[in-house]
Amino acid sequence: MDEQDIPIDIHTGKLQEWLVSRRVVGKDWHKAIPDIRNKINNAIRDMPAHEELVKLLSGAHINYFHCLKIVEILKMTEADTKNVFGRYGSQRMKDWQDVVRSYEKDSVYLAEAAQILVRNITFEIPSLKKQIAKFEQLSEESTKKAKDMSKSQNAIRSEFNTLCQQLGIKGEKIRAELKEKVEQLPKLYDEIASKVSSLDKAVNLYGEYCKNRNCLEIIRHVAVAGNSTVYEFLYSEAPLSVEETPIDFGPEEDTAQEVNQEIDFGETIDFGEGEITLQTDGADGAIDWGEGNETVTDPAEINFDISLEESGIVVEGGGQSGGVARGEEALSVLDAPKYRDQFIDELMELEAFLKMRLYELTTASESSMISLSFLDEIAGQDTNTIQQMIVNVEVVLANTMQPQLQYLHQVKHSPRYIDILSAKVRQKLTAIDKLKENENLSKEKSVKYHEQAASLRPDLAKAISHTKILQQQIETDISKRYKNRVVNLMGGINTI
Question: pTM (2 decimals)?
Answer without folding.
Answer: 0.57
